[in-house]
């Protein structure tokens, strides 16, 4: 299915899975629509510069649940457009009361810079505010989300944020990794609300998930070969053995990914 849109780029990954990307912004954010027989899951809702529901409405008529990889402003932008929102219990408070230790001035600066596509008239960076609201339900490690003929396994993977999750689609072997793993720019754990120790443990955790065929991160390339997980294992060992898993050790580059502490 081809969709033309001024802000979003839609890439069909298979018959019932789509990447919805925002390449006009420096963050190159991806959200993912996973369509089952009975309902669909939207993994994150993007920057909020434009309304992602305009796109999902064209892709499916099924009810949509939003699965939040983590409560950072660039992944919850269109949450307010959807009725059913789920988040890990460790970030319920962030969704309701706001992202901890991140001033609105910094968010507005980041959302408005380095934009290369025309933005809609509705977007005003001076009044931009991240979504806040009560989630429909809370997710926990090991939980199975059923879509009808597609089961999604939730893995709690803190580090980049306390309630970060990754989502494994058992039927396809797709692993949606949010901001735990992507290419081109560093995955980070250098903010006060991050944890280098947890991030490395979470990278190790996903490197041991059996049956992964493809990785879909929240930024940059919309799809990474699963072979990167063997490099992730090596990277984890290197960081631990050299006692680099702590704030202030900087950027550590590996084949296909990097991390910044």
Description of the molecule:
With 261 residues, this protein is of the alpha/beta class. The chain has one domain: Metallo-beta-lactamase, Chain A (4-Layer Sandwich). The protein is built from five helices and 16 strands. It starts with 8 loop residues before the first strand and ends with a strand.
Descriptive key words:
7-stranded mixed sheet, 5 helices, 6-stranded mixed sheet, alpha/beta, Metallo-beta-lactamase, Chain A, single chain, 261 residues
Q: Helix- and strand-based class?
A: alpha/beta
Q: Any idea how many domains?
A: 1
CATH topology: Metallo-beta-lactamase, Chain A
Shape: globular
Task: Write a concise synopsis of the structure shown.
The protein has 261 residues and is an alpha/beta fold. It is 18% helix and 27% strand.
Produce the secondary structure layout:
Blueprint: E1 9-14, E2 17-22, E3 29-35, E4 40-43, H1 53-59, E5 64-67, E6 84-88, H2 92-97, H3 104-112, E7 137-139, E8 144-146, E9 151-156, E10 165-169, E11 174-178, E12 187-188, H4 196-207, E13 214-217, E14 224-225, H5 228-241, E15 251-254, E16 257-260
Helix pairs in contact: 4-5
């Amino acid at each position: 299915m081809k969709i033309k849109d001024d802000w979003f780029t839609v890439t069909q990954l298979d018959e019932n899975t789509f990447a919805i990307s925002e390449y006009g912004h420096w963050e190159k954010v991806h959200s993912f629509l996973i369509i089952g027989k009975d309902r669909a899951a939207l993994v994150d809702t993007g920057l909020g510069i434009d309304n992602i529901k305009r796109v999902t409405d064209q892709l499916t008529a099924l009810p949509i649940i939003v699965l939040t990889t983590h409560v950072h402003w660039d992944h919850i932008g269109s949450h307010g457009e959807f009725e059913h929102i789920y988040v890990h219990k460790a970030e319920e408070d962030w969704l309701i009361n706001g992202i901890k230790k991140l001033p609105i001035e910094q968010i507005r600066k980041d959302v408005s810079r380095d934009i290369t596509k025309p933005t809609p008239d509705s977007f005003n960076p001076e009044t931009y505010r991240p979504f806040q609201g009560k989630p429909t339900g809370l997710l926990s490690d090991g939980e199975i989300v059923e879509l009808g003929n597609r089961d999604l396994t939730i893995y709690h993977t803190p580090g980049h944020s306390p309630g970060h999750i990754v989502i494994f689609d058992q039927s396809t072997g797709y692993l949606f990794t949010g901001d735990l793993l992507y290419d081109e720019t560093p995955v980070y754990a250098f903010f006060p609300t991050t944890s280098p120790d947890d991030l490395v443990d979470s990278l190790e955790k996903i490197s041991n998930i059996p049956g992964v065929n493809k990785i879909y991160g929240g930024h940059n390339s919309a799809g990474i070969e699963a072979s990167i997980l063997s490099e992730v294992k090596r990277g984890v060992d290197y960081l631990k053995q050299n006692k680099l898993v702590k704030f202030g050790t900087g950027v550590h580059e590996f084949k296909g990914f990097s991390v910044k502490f």
